[in-house]
Amino acid sequence: MLFVVIGKPKAASSGKERIARRVSWEYPAGMRMIAEYWPMSTEIAVIAVAEADNVASIMSAIVDWDDVFDLTVTPTMTAEQGLELARQMQASSSA
């Protein structure tokens, strides 16, 4: 399943601290990074799209970072998947 993770930096952490940690950190087993963005914003420091085999790997990543980020994790789908689902919904409602 795909997830979007949005990280807002906590005031007690510094950009230097977060960057130094990210350089050596790897996504947990069972979680694959699809995309990771570092917006040029003081509001949001990271946006990641990741695929996970189970919730345990997502929880592991959250625990690794929850001291420096307020994290929002949202299940998601690609636009292609969403359009296919919309087509199926339309077909079943018009039947």
Describe this protein's structure.
The chain has a single domain (2-94), classed as Alpha-Beta Plaits (2-Layer Sandwich), CATH 3.30.70. The protein has 3 helices and 4 strands. The protein has helices at 15-24, 55-65, 79-94; strands at 2-9, 31-37, 46-52, 69-76. The protein has a 4-stranded antiparallel β-sheet with strand order 2-3-1-4. The longest helix has 16 residues, at 79-94. It is elongated, with a radius of gyration of 16 Å. The model has no long low-confidence stretch (mean pLDDT 94).
For the record, the count of structural domains works out to: 1
Low-pLDDT ranges: none
E-strand count: 4
Q: Summarize model confidence as the mean pLDDT.
A: 94
H/E element string? EHEEHEH
The DSSP helix count reads 3
Looking across the biggest beta sheet, what order are the strands in?
2-3-1-4
Shape: elongated
| Helical content class | 25-40%
Structure class = alpha+beta
**How many angstroms separate the termini?**
29 Å
Proportion of residues in β-strands: 25-35%
Largest β sheet strand count, sense and barrel closure: 4 strands, antiparallel
Q: Rounded to an integer, what's the Rg over CA atoms?
A: 16 Å
TL;DR of this structure?
With 95 residues, the chain is of the alpha+beta class. The chain has three helices and four strands; from the N terminus they run E-H-E-E-H-E-H.
Task: Give a quick set of tags describing it.
single chain, 95 residues, alpha+beta, Alpha-Beta Plaits, four-stranded antiparallel sheet, elongated
Secondary structure layout plus pairing:
Layout: E1 2-9, H1 15-24, E2 31-37, E3 46-52, H2 55-65, E4 69-76, H3 79-94
Antiparallel strand pairs: 1-3, 1-4, 2-3
